Amino acid sequence: MKSVHGTEPDMANYDCVVDLLGHAGMFDMVQEIMKSMPMKPDAIMQKSLLGACKIHRNFDLGKKAGLEVIELAPDDHAGYVLLSNLYAMANKWDQVPKLRKSMLEKGIKKPPGCSRSRVYCWRHKAS
Description:
Elements: H1 2-5, H2 11-23, H3 27-36, H4 43-56, H5 59-72, H6 77-89, H7 95-105, H8 116-126
Helix pairs in contact: 2-3, 2-4, 4-5, 4-6, 5-6, 6-7
């Protein structure tokens, strides 16, 4: 972008690249990009990474991303739900009710019919 168009990539550009590479299962490249970015990864990027990790069954990286999402956006239901689903996929059934209980204690509810992709789209439509 910089060399061809003279434009510095912003967070939305990095979010898209991480989402694409993550869904392609290219986690080494994702981690390289996230480390080399001039800004700290945001909750949207971590949610994209978490979703990709669930698809490709990358539990360790997904758990790390999920905990980051919860730290960066503690009131967002998506991080809790995605991480809970990742725990279930990895047969870490003891963690699922703990995470769901944490949501309830904080008064966080998942709106019916709201998926991760919708949350992602709402964020980018608003910006």
